[in-house]
Amino acid sequence: MRRVIITGGNLAEATAEAAGALRAGALVALPTETVYGLAADAVNGEAVARIFAAKGRPRFNPLICHVTGVGMARRYGELDGRAETLAKAFWPGPLTIVVPLAPGAPVHPLVTAGLPSVAIRAPRGPAQALIAAYGGALAAPSANKSGRLSPTRAEHVAEQLGDEVALLLDGGPCEVGLESTIVALTGERPKLLRPGAIAAETIEAALGETLERAAFGEAIAAPGMLASHYAPLLPLRLDATALEPGEALLAFGSAEMSGADRAVAARNLSPAGDLIEAAANLFAHMAELDRSGAERIAVAPIPRHGLGEAINDRLRRAAAPRM
Ligand code: TXA
Ligand code: MG
């Protein structure tokens, strides 16, 4: 960690420095009213990939886009009447809504894990001033290593992720200490995806409608079920070492695959063999090859260390037989 700034009394300095770090593609740990977040510029795919690398996440779970309020939220998602009602009632505050992704939204596909929906919330506290100063959404999961508790004090973040962030904004203990409640507004009925800081009953009262409840564990399983939402339409052939006729190629690294010159279309996740770059390119490249008119996508072997584990996990899900 290069620097810690205590936000109380120093907010202008903190936001200016944080905005600079974010613009440079670095990670910034920041306090929200719920828990500390590990933030990156939501349009910068490599910065977002670094979040997953820093957390040691074995999977690409979609991330929450943090905005200043309804106005900024509209750039990213399509807010219907229910979304507006909830935003008016609870923002800024610990409610996250999952809504359809707005056409042309300035958000990298790694943030949404390639889904046609996006999770959005407007946090309270210094995070809000920072997002306003930055002028765009910050993608941020909780600032803990994968599998560990969400951090509610700057010291927790320093201990777990001190080496991964350019800047840690210390806002003292978090006001709420529990993650935001997540409500999906992508279907007929609003659905509680994750219980959190705002009671479901309070949300139901504001909506005038009951929430469908996800089965226990389903909210956590949701990202693991993404294959059924977003898998390429074309079949995938993993760990390919030679290209077959009619195939498109998803390559990795500088080695030329035999038969590659006959590929219907080709994309390279990272010619330099960099797993961060590969993660940032994964969803966009798969979507492009999907539209190539090929019969199948052959995927070169991807190393399994670092972010390679999450990349291979996602590829395996995408290659799994469709229901
Ligand atoms: O309070 C919070 O929400 C904190 C602070 C930092 O804002 N953030 C947080 O993020 O808890 P994270 O990444 O630990 O949890 C976000 C949850 C994940 O379970 C993810 O699957 C879900 O949000 N999520 C994000 N986008 C989604 C989408 N498009 N559809 C369904 N679930 C989504
Ligand atoms: Mg978390």
Task: Describe, in plain words, how this protein is organized in 3D.
The protein has twelve helices and 15 strands. It is an alpha/beta fold and 323 residues long. The strands form two sheets. An eleven-stranded mixed sheet has the order 1-8-2-3-7-4-6-5-9-10-11, sandwiched between helices. The protein is globular and about 60 Å long.
Shape: globular
Q: Sheet with the most strands?
A: 11 strands, mixed
Which structural class do the helices and strands define? alpha/beta
How many H/I helical runs?
A: 12
Strand order of the largest sheet: 1-8-2-3-7-4-6-5-9-10-11
The run of helices and strands is: EHEEHEHHEHEHEHEEEHEHHEEEHEH
Q: Low-confidence segments, ≥5 residues, pLDDT <50?
A: 219-229
The kinds of small molecule bound in this structure are:
threonylcarbamoyladenylate, magnesium ion
Mean of all residue-level pLDDT scores:
91
Distance between the termini: 45 Å
Measured as a percent range, the helix fraction is 25-40%
| Strand residue percentage | 15-25%
Write the layout of secondary structure elements.
Layout (H helix, E strand, L loop, with lengths): L2 E4 L4 H13 L4 E4 L4 E6 L3 H11 L8 E3 L3 H7 L4 H10 L4 E6 L8 H4 L4 E5 L4 H9 L3 E2 L14 H8 L5 E4 L10 E4 L6 E4 L5 H8 L4 E2 L4 H4 L4 H4 L6 E2 L9 E5 L14 E3 L6 H16 L5 E4 L8 H12 L4
Parallel strand pairs: 1-8, 2-8, 4-6, 5-9, 10-11, 12-15, 13-14, 13-15
Antiparallel strand pairs: 2-3, 3-7, 4-7, 5-6, 9-10
Helix pairs in contact: 1-6, 2-11
Bound molecules: threonylcarbamoyladenylate and magnesium ion.
